[in-house]
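FW: tagging you since you asked about this chain on Friday. Here's the raw sequence from the shared folder, copied in full. Didn't touch anything.
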Amino acid sequence: MSSRGSQAWLFQRVTAVLIFLLLGTHVFLYHYLIGPADWGYDILGFGAADLAKIKADPNLMKYYSLAKVFANPLWKVFDVTLISVGTYHGFYGIKAIIDDWVTHDGWRAIGNWGTYLIGFVLWVIGVVAVISFNPNLF
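HL: got it, structure written out here
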């Protein structure tokens, strides 16, 4: 696999497998493991002040549960990896569509550079949101 196109083709397949594994882990963790109300507050290690806020507004339980996860640097790495792999896979797919369907070289270049720019901006927004999350906001 010496050509750049074949390496990109292989990486597109590898990122598809990674997305499947990472997204499956994400869905299980965030939507099944954290979601149930019968988990109990004590398992998450909330303090008395946190419990008082949760009892006043039960909707905060989900926020506090996610805040505990996002406070862990390993989960931040996990989420940044998911964002990075997903962004690459999605925007490389858009680039492949542009390369296949846009016949004029100038328009193809504009489309590809626009795709790179939009993909990079969205990736930065996602990564900054994960890294800068402050679990002590409330």
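FW: Helices lie at 4-33, 48-56, 60-70, 73-101, 105-131.
HL: agreed, and Residues 12-131 form one domain.
FW: great, closing this out.
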